[in-house]
């Protein structure tokens, strides 16, 4: 055995792991755990209060609806990857196949910059919860985040079995406390805390008009989607999942249903218990836990926060290295990123994303720029997924190959969800300024120019 008895690598397996590609080594539930573990990992604790302060009790609706929007992406990705079960990289693969090199690159880098940077972000946020926000603790938070990212880098380097079993355990430890506290909280809900339902916390926006409610929904949705649009991540490791034709649809549906259960429970009951305090307390979910279960409730929610936050650097390193792997296989990245080590891990991509996260942790300027540009590339990525699926569904040869077939209404729904994403960006720009949106647009245009020049040079060589 290699490593130790808990991480089931036989010597014969290691011998067979060459640099020829990813290996099928994990069950479908590991893929589902990527979504369930990361979805709302720190967002429920930090962003639910923010969305409440923007839209009032309607924040619960915003979270649930955006998660349902995310379900469309999960279903079409399950559809796509039963057609191409040997592809990795989530949105990148179907967009690259259906729409070509340049849209594929935009989708790939949109996915990469969103998920790849998440490890540093979540680790630093968890550091804030543990060490506080006093400037004197800044170095402690940085070192803590660096330690977490490094530990998960090591786990990932030695194979997806290690990273996968870690992800599964942490996901269970996150979800069970959330569902338990949410169920116990139901009798404590005060329905008067949901009236009025829409409450504007945004200057200049009236909550009693349709236009005002739409703006509140869109602006709060952009914050919520940092969590609820995690539904795509299960499709980043498809070539490493055993029996993907059955496993990928299971992972998609299971991750959406479980996520809806704990997101719905926590958002509705927390607002129903705390009311307007949701937008005024510094750590409202811990106060909510205290009210419904005393100290035990607060401890359970601390466990959920810590375990959920720990899943993010694990998944960030895993998923980002797989998208660069697939881009290299398709010729959109240097070939070195398609190489795998003896454990079946694309180690050069893993090293690259690890270094990017370390730079983000220790250089605040890099952190600020990368966080600012994330929005637009991520929304464009989802939009391109919707467009690609219109073509995939209309192409008889591709559709007939699918083991899991998405109906037209789901495909059209995924396209509409992609369009709605631009509404989030518009509302964010109108209400909070266009700086981040412009930076994101510049990033997308930069990718477009680089890929167009590369295509032109390749054509001239031929």
Automatic annotation (TrEMBL):
<keyword id="KW-1003">Cell membrane</keyword>
<keyword id="KW-0812">Transmembrane</keyword>
<dbReference type="Pfam" id="PF13520">
    <property type="entry name" value="AA_permease_2"/>
</dbReference>
<feature type="transmembrane region" description="Helical">
    <location>
        <begin position="343"/>
        <end position="363"/>
    </location>
</feature>
<feature type="transmembrane region" description="Helical">
    <location>
        <begin position="299"/>
        <end position="317"/>
    </location>
</feature>
<dbReference type="InterPro" id="IPR050367">
    <property type="entry name" value="APC_superfamily"/>
</dbReference>
<feature type="transmembrane region" description="Helical">
    <location>
        <begin position="143"/>
        <end position="160"/>
    </location>
</feature>
<keyword id="KW-1133">Transmembrane helix</keyword>
<feature type="transmembrane region" description="Helical">
    <location>
        <begin position="105"/>
        <end position="131"/>
    </location>
</feature>
<feature type="transmembrane region" description="Helical">
    <location>
        <begin position="28"/>
        <end position="48"/>
    </location>
</feature>
<feature type="transmembrane region" description="Helical">
    <location>
        <begin position="251"/>
        <end position="279"/>
    </location>
</feature>
<feature type="transmembrane region" description="Helical">
    <location>
        <begin position="369"/>
        <end position="388"/>
    </location>
</feature>
<keyword id="KW-0472">Membrane</keyword>
<feature type="transmembrane region" description="Helical">
    <location>
        <begin position="437"/>
        <end position="457"/>
    </location>
</feature>
<feature type="transmembrane region" description="Helical">
    <location>
        <begin position="408"/>
        <end position="431"/>
    </location>
</feature>
<dbReference type="InterPro" id="IPR002293">
    <property type="entry name" value="AA/rel_permease1"/>
</dbReference>
<dbReference type="GO" id="GO:0005886">
    <property type="term" value="C:plasma membrane"/>
</dbReference>
<feature type="transmembrane region" description="Helical">
    <location>
        <begin position="60"/>
        <end position="84"/>
    </location>
</feature>
<protein>
    <submittedName>
        <fullName>Dimethylamine permease</fullName>
    </submittedName>
</protein>
<feature type="transmembrane region" description="Helical">
    <location>
        <begin position="212"/>
        <end position="230"/>
    </location>
</feature>
<dbReference type="GO" id="GO:0022857">
    <property type="term" value="F:transmembrane transporter activity"/>
</dbReference>
<feature type="transmembrane region" description="Helical">
    <location>
        <begin position="172"/>
        <end position="192"/>
    </location>
</feature>
